[in-house]
Amino acid sequence: MIFNSTDFLLFFPIVILLYFLVPKRLRYIWLLGASLYFYMCWNVKYVILLLISIVTTWLAGILVQKYKNTLTRKWILASCLMVNIGILFFFKYFDFFLDSLNKVLAKVGVQAVESSFSFLLPVGISFYTFQALGYIIDVYKGKIDAEKNPLRYALFVSFFPQLVAGPIERSENLLKQVRNVEKMKVWNYENVTSGLILMVWGLFVKMVIADRVGILVNTVFDGVYLYGTVALVAGAVGFALQIYCDFMGYSTIAVGAARVMGFTLMENFHTPYLATSVSDFWRRWHISLSTWFRDYVYIPLGGNRCSRIRKYFNLMVTFGVSGLWHGANWTYVFWGFLHGVYQVIGDITKPFRTKICEKTQAKTESFSFKLAQIVGTFVLVDIAWIFFRADSLKVAVDYCKRMFTKWDPWSLFNGELYTLGLDRTEFNILLVATVILLLVDLIRYFKKQQITEFLEEQCIWFRWGVIFLLIFGTIIYGTYGIQFESSQFIYFQF
């Protein structure tokens, strides 16, 4: 069951209606049942893995808080981490590890290791595993008390709006709300309306932009060696737009759905393509994951409170692991390392760049300077996205080579852009929708307001006019023809 499906269109109102009607003390039980049903719609068998993660981390939390002996607590924590990371490794990385091992063995003339295991990747396993592990680590560090009620804890891990693709919530935020669900106001007009508007906006960017540009992206990446600079640049920029709208769209729907029920989830995106540096990009992109790696990987490694060399090592390890988290392929690992390299080079050259700006009396706060920083950052991020999207490192390298060597500026004027899966009409729809996205992001960037807060300040005809345009735009252009049937969210595979 995905958000942009008729199943969810039926599921969500029923869940909300009964959530408002059941006795307060039964709310969390109802939401838990709905969440488990939501997950079982993907694969009934894999709910067992979710329950194992819930049970092991819940028990570990109880035991870690019960025992005072440091060594005992460490052993409990380590055991819990090994079980959950072990499950994640087996289902997500075992084939990748075995394939990489066999390639190494083949080079030294050793027979390949055979495996009879073949599993479908459990949807959302990386997300709920990291959320559960964050909880047990927080309990171990004393940041939060262990949850004694197993059903409340189970709801924290399996809460359906953010279960399969985030945001990866922290126990200090979501678990505290679950503990107080009986005290939440059953009906809050502002929460319901703003939540529904966020859901509409998320569906718009997903179904009108992400799914549409995805056709262009697939066309280009499936025929890398057929195209020149213009098409390859369009494919690279298109994928940057696709993955942003796809993942931001899901997170926005998740935040909106939770808000309708009175829950507040963390913001997962904050205008990432308006970042002025790569480090700034990571403060704005997939915030729940980047802060998770900062708190549970980078800082425990020593963070930046160490020598410069060790700091750079910590950065590279963190981003390498982040890349691996996204998928069992060397392209993801390279993507992560590339972002680490960006940050290391940025830190090394910062004094030099600052001195250059001082010498040339550059107006670093001017619009032109900020714009140059934004464009430069986007180019670096977009080049990295090529490695993220490509089927292999070789294809990614060839993609970059052709993009910078197969110049064909005439393709901008001879109509070739309209042969990349989208005709002129569909391409123009994409451009208009992208302009709308840019306007919303600029409002978020300059006014520090989400779309719901901005609309709340406007007169009623403008507010409802925008809402109806988004609804009808999604209905008309989000389901335009057979080939535009809305696809599964990209980040479900992670």
Describe the structure.
By secondary structure, this protein is mostly helical. It contains 18 helices and no strands.
Strand percentage lies at under 5%
| Structural class category | mainly alpha
Mean pLDDT: 89
> If you compute it from the alpha carbons, what radius of gyration comes out, rounded to the nearest whole angstrom?
24 Å
The residue ranges in which pLDDT falls below 50 over 5 or more consecutive positions are none
Number of helices: 18
End-to-end CA span: 17 Å
- Main beta-sheet annotation: none
In total, how many beta strands?
0
Shape: globular
Estimated helix fraction: 55-70%
Provide the succession of SSEs.
HHHHHHHHHHHHHHHHHH
Element layout with pairings:
Layout: H1 6-21, H2 27-40, H3 47-66, H4 70-107, H5 125-141, H6 150-158, H7 171-179, H8 189-222, H9 229-260, H10 278-282, H11 287-301, H12 308-326, H13 330-359, H14 367-389, H15 393-405, H16 424-447, H17 451-456, H18 460-477
Helix pairs in contact: 1-2, 2-6, 3-4, 3-5, 3-6, 4-5, 6-7, 8-9, 8-16, 8-18, 9-14, 9-15, 11-12, 12-13, 13-14, 14-15
